[in-house]
Amino acid sequence: MKIGSFDHDGTMVELIPAEALSASSNSFTVVVGKNGIGKSRLLSGIAKELTQRYDYDYDDEDEPLVIAISTSPFDKFPAISRSRSKNYSNFRYVGLRGDSSASASSLISLMSSAARGLLKSALHGHNGASFLEVFSSLHFRPQANFILKPAFDKTAHSTANSTEEYFFVEPVESTGPIRVDKRYKHVYDGLGTEEKSSVEYAMSNVASYYQARKAIELEFDFATSTSYIDGKKLSPSILNSIVILMKLGLMRLMDITLEKEDHGSLSLRRASSGEQCLLIIMLGIAGHIRDGSVILIDEPEISLHPRWQEEFMPMLTSAFSGFSDCQFIIATHSPQVVSRATSKFSYILVLESGSLLNSKDFNNKSADFQLAELFGAPGRMNEYVSRLGFNLIAKIRARKSIDIEILNGLDDLLMFKSRLSDEDPVKKLIISVEELVASHATH
Q: Which regions of the chain carry the CATH code 3.40.50?
């Protein structure tokens, strides 16, 4: 499904060159540009262009997917309806929008979005090796405990009389009515007849595992694809019911706990914001990725410490190296993300100019270098630009004359002049170099 170029705002921009398009290896394109230039719109446009819709639940395990990942509440990816049956597609979204929970925080929305993909993928036996690679890359053991809060429970007929806080459904072949939190009635009412039947069965199925509406703990081992509640092994039918109910918000994810190597149990809710975002991005991709997929990641650096930003691209490359023919497109403002795009088929797209550059020319370069050369925003007292200026002064003094190399160096330096404030010492340095060249040129 790789795409070599895309029409962005009426201009064709190259995303990967022909050699990457034809190779079976994964490719990585890092999109940079100033705010408002359209990085998020580019990703959204690609998602819309590649999304195929079906009027039935089509889920061919060999079909490549379009996977959109964002930890921003302002992403521009297409919205997904959770209640309309005729809205099946090859598009998967992991982000803050679209959670059906009555009161979902941003973190819970992200966690729930990633968790559904993980459980559904594990249920169908997809990506077992990928999960293990992702957990290994992040230094976690391949187990997770999902803390879930159901919005329903089973109730005896004699107690089924409160209609202020609950509504009641009685599934076919059920042992009794299901009492459901009234805040979710609009979700239930929006379902078609077949969907209602499926959801009623799912609630009845899951409710047999607990006695009251309290949090339950689902233990999942990704190494063996086995799951448990209170020590009881779950059948695929129960796990599928949980995934269905999570999608509608009728089972809310409260937390995920993981086992970190050499550090013990870690609650994702209590982890640092950087760990939360990194885990959710990686696990969100792992829950959906297949060979040939296109993965669109919008501003992964949000909430990431600079050290985590540096680790992002190596981790992404390593975690999904077991897949082939995938295309990762990442929009970012982070010089650290750019500097570590080191795999063979990695490229930098400068959206303002439409230039597609080989990432090797920017590997392991300083943030000041990236800001000046790629982002067009050197900022105050940029050390890289300062070094260019002082090096040019040294050449002028050593050679006593102005040659073509010095003139080219001055041209390079002058490109940054208009992007610096008048008070910036680096701009004053550039003016001094300019005057020095002019002085030597007249002698």
A: 5-151+213-362
Angle between helices 106-123 and 128-137 (to 10 degrees): 140
CB within 8 Å of 418: residues ≥ 6 apart: none
C-beta pairs of 383-392 under 8 Å, 24+ apart in sequence: 385/413, 385/416, 385/420, 385/426, 385/430, 386/426, 386/429, 388/412, 388/413, 389/413, 389/426, 389/429, 389/430, 389/432, 389/433, 390/429, 392/433
pTM above 0.90, yes or no: no
Distance of CA 182 to the CA centre of its chain: 33
User: For the chain, how are helix, strand and coil distributed in percent, rounded to 5?
Assistant: 40, 20, 40
Q: With cut-offs at 50, 70 and 90, classify the pLDDT of residue 299.
A: very high
Q: Which amino acid is at 20?
A: A
In this structure, whether the domain defined by 5-151+213-362 belongs to CATH 2.10.240 is answered with no
Strands 294-298 and 327-331: parallel
Q: Which of the four pLDDT bands, split at 50, 70 and 90, describes residue 1? A: confident
- Exposure string over 333-363, b if 16+ CB within 10 A, otherwise e: bbbbbbbbbebebbbbbbbeeeebbebeebe
Q: DSSP character for 334?
A: -
